[in-house]
Amino acid sequence: MNARDSQLSERLQTGFLGVIAFALLLFLLVQARFMLICLAFAIIIFSLTSDAISAFARLKVPNWLATTLALIAIAIGLLWAATTVVAQVNEVVSTSILYADRAQAALSSLSQRWGPRAQESIATFLGNIDFAGWVRSAAAQASSLISGSVLVLTFVGFMFSERIWFPVKIERLTGDADQADEVLRIIYSIMRRVNRYLVVKAAISGVTAALIWIIFRLTGLELSGAMATLTFILNFIPTIGSIIATVTAVAVVLAQTGDPTATLAIGGACGMVQFLIGNIFDPMLLGQTLRLSSFGIILSLAFWGAVWGIAGTFLAVPIMVAIMIVCANIPWLRPVAIMISHEGLPEEEPRRARLRG
Prior knowledge:
Blueprint: H1 3-31, H2 33-58, H3 63-98, H4 100-113, H5 116-127, H6 131-161, H7 166-174, H8 177-218, H9 224-234, H10 240-257, H11 260-290, H12 294-308, H13 310-328, H14 334-340
């Protein structure tokens, strides 16, 4: 066997092993999805609260006191958020049952105006949609939030207990102080950019949810709190979340009023709020924070949504930010960071020394 055939055989073997490794990783991601999702959320919460604890430390507050207060606040916040979501989902389910007949009558009225062919098409389309299955799935996932919150809180507690030793472990793991500093810099860069994204996104989603709540309250519609909560949550899913929130709002308005004109007016107002905030304020405030390709975000949403479901769509952007920063600091993976970044500029700061591949 000559050198060329030997090199080709080695590349094929490497590629085959890479495919096997990816398949094994994908299998583990799917099988351990609940634990990994809780771990991912725990890391995000730990990252957010670490900055707050550091700020308290600068105010001469003892570290043990700041950590204890942070854990108490996290526990209360997680349990409150989980119970609120479960309550809102139950309210939506119970209310949708009450308005099911009215919604069906409204759709029949609309289809009759557009002719028998449109009526048949709408009936076929609605017949292919498993609304009951969607409602049951949403209720089941909402009920699992409480058990997930307990696991997340457990993870966060152990992370705080190991927080002070983490830099020491990195230095001993790498065996080089300079390389350990570089690894810590990468980790802190990921934490800083993800934290900034989450804080800004939470503020934008909060404003959007408040406006939707005002629209529903002013028009005298029910489920204003549920729609505001749903809007706030869905707006953490880039692009797709705002579309789903708008379509859901239109469906809720049609079910409650049964009036196509009122539905178009109120639904148009909700859509205008989503459009203005999503296309003007959102890119303006998050553009320099994310530095991610729009196409890359859609691919990340599709992949993590297929692997981890709804939770994966919420984690898609933070995971993609972490992957981009890590790849940008490893020379042989830098092309990946360039491809998934906006304008081919993955760094938020000038280039520094990189990890050797």
